[in-house]
Design brief:
The complex is a heterodimer of chains A (389) and B (121). Chain A is an alpha+beta fold and 389 residues long. Chain A is globular and about 65 Å long. Chain A has 9 helices and 19 strands. Chain B has 121 residues and is an alpha+beta fold. The chains are: A alpha+beta (389), B alpha+beta (121).
Chain lengths: 389, 121
């Protein structure tokens, strides 16, 4: 995490609440953010896996892309707004059902990943022709102009990052949120809808970046503190900072832009092929389609893998990866200590020949080789809300 | 007990110094999950890297407060690194050093001076 000077930092609607709660604050993506609270990273992490963690993720980039002129035909309007953003992403946006949310990737002309983001289609008929987007904090300055330009004259992009984005994650998150916003706990995984709380509108999605069941809630600033306090008052809830957010997503095998993925990595290399729509590929004109086809046929030069460090110190970002004979083959892009496993874990890139789970490798930490094994993602099982069919 | 601006503590007994990180450092670091210590016989130099203490989030260097030769490292910490948090200025000690020049202790802060220094942070 980069730290920048305190005076230049932006505040979220919850900054004062964090300071009151005894958070340690750091500069992150230009915002003054809590890295941990009194419990510390390890306990916040384990609390989230066992109960419910409350996160301020207001530094992220929520926005709405809305057609300038809607026809009034809900499906035609959704198709029209989707057609504006699909040329930039690899996901099937036109095919979203009302209320559905999808993880997708903004790609450059070479098929590299500009950002990973969420795109949602509103549930209600009266709001068709609009898309809900959430991009990474550090990529707002790149993504928003790109999308706005692609849609210029036909749809307007309204940023919503002056609002609060609150995540509640963990096996008890649904019960806790259901006590405050009754209908929210009925949402399916990767669905979103608007709900009223004390006359203020919330946009609630059943999603997150910890591998647990949970929700992300977009709230107006004046409602944000009230909602945060009500959720934090629940005995099943502890506030969780960016430190544990990072260790949770690492255990869940989820990549972080700027570390595990960037404009040079492709969806195939990044092990994010699931985000590439077959329908979009078949229709052609998808950014990066040529590279995708080539990497599918011949294999990519490198691929993102999970690593279990079997001995020694945690291998962190930048640590070299070597084969059994000590020849350099790759680099760690995220790494640390897994509180759930009680052992160091990492992710990084290696050639496909070394990517099979169980392959014995080495990581170099402070110049010393340590035994390491390729592991499949996720390190800890995902526990998303997926009712049996 | 004497202290450095890098938040190490030293206690001198004859010519053997016991070294650890201060309660303040342990609190700042958070839960310690891994400790890397030098082996007996390693030469350390005042201000030079001596050990690494790691939390979930980050690795922090620990610097030798005095010049000398490592005679012992706290082996308990490989199984229970959390001891550094539980008793940073006691059973969470890191290494023992046979110091070359005990007079180097005079360069370090006493507790009152260290606490005043913490007040400036």
């Amino acid at each position: 995490m980069e730290t920048v000077s305190a005076e230049a930092l932006l505040r979220t609607p919850l900054t004062d609440a964090h300071r009151r709660a005894g958070a340690r604050m750091v500069g992150f993506a230009g915002y003054d953010m809590p890295v941990q609270y009194a419990q510390g990273v390890l306990k916040e992490h384990l609390w989230t896996r066992a109960h419910a963690g409350l996160f301020d993720v207001s530094h992220m980039g929520p926005a709405f892309l809305t057609l300038e002129r809607r026809s009034g035909d809900p499906d035609a309007d959704h198709a029209a707004v989707s057609a504006l953003i699909e040329p930039l992403v690899c996901g099937d946006i036109a095919g979203l059902s009302p209320g559905q949310l999808r993880y997708t990737l903004l790609l450059n002309e070479d098929g590299g990943i500009i950002d990973d983001l969420m795109i949602g289609r509103p549930l209600w008929e009266s709001r068709q022709g609009m898309l809900y987007l959430v991009v990474n904090a550090a990529r707002k300055a790149v993504d928003f102009p790109l999308i706005a330009e692609a849609a210029a004259g036909r749809a307007r992009l309204e940023r919503a990052d002056d609002r609060a984005l609150i995540a509640i994650q963990g096996p008890e998150a649904a019960e806790v949120l259901g006590g405050v916003v009754r209908e929210a706990s009925a949402l399916g995984f990767m669905r979103h809808a608007r709900f009223d709380l004390d006359g203020s509108r919330l946009l609630v999605s059943r999603s997150g970046y910890t591998g647990e069941d949970g929700f992300e809630i977009l709230a107006l600033p004046e409602m944000a503190v009230k909602l945060w306090d009500r959720l934090a008052d629940d005995r099943r809830v502890e506030p969780v900072g960016l430190g544990a957010r990072d260790s949770l997503r690492l255990e869940a095998g989820l990549p972080l832009w700027g570390h595990d993925i960037d404009e040079t990595t492709s969806p195939v290399e990044a092990a994010l092929e699931f985000a590439v729509s077959k329908k979009r590929l078949k229709a052609g004109a998808m950014r990066g389609a040529a590279r995708f086809a080539r990497e599918r046929a011949d294999g990519p030069a490198r691929v993102r893998v999970g690593l279990k460090v079997l001995q020694g110190a945690p291998a962190r970002e930048g640590a070299p990866i070597a084969d059994g004979q000590g020849r350099g083959i790759g680099v760690v892009t995220s790494g640390g200590f897994s509180p759930s496993l009680g052992a160091p874990i990492a992710m990084g890139y290696v050639p496909p020949a070394f990517a099979a789970p169980g392959t014995a490798l080495q990581v170099l930490v402070r110049g010393r080789p340590q035994a390491t094994e390729v592991a499949s993602f996720p390190f800890t099982p995902h526990r998303y809300h997926r009712p049996a069919a | 007990m004497r202290f450095t601006k890098d938040h190490e503590w030293v206690e001198l007994n004859g010519d053997t110094a016991t070294v650890g990180i201060t309660a303040y450092a342990a609190e700042q670091l958070g839960d310690v999950v891994f400790v890397e210590l030098p082996t007996a016989g390693a030469k350390v130099e005042a201000g030079g890297e001596m050990a690494v203490v790691e939390s979930v989030k980050a690795a922090s260097d620990v610097f030798a407060p005095l010049t000398g030769e490592v005679t012992d490292a706290n082996g308990e910490l490989s199984d229970n690194p959390q001891t550094v948090n539980d008793a940073p200025e006691g059973s969470g000690w890191l290494v023992k050093i046979k110091v070359a020049d005990p007079a180097q202790m005079d360069q370090l802060m006493d507790r009152a001076a260290y606490e005043a220094f913490l007040g400036t942070l």
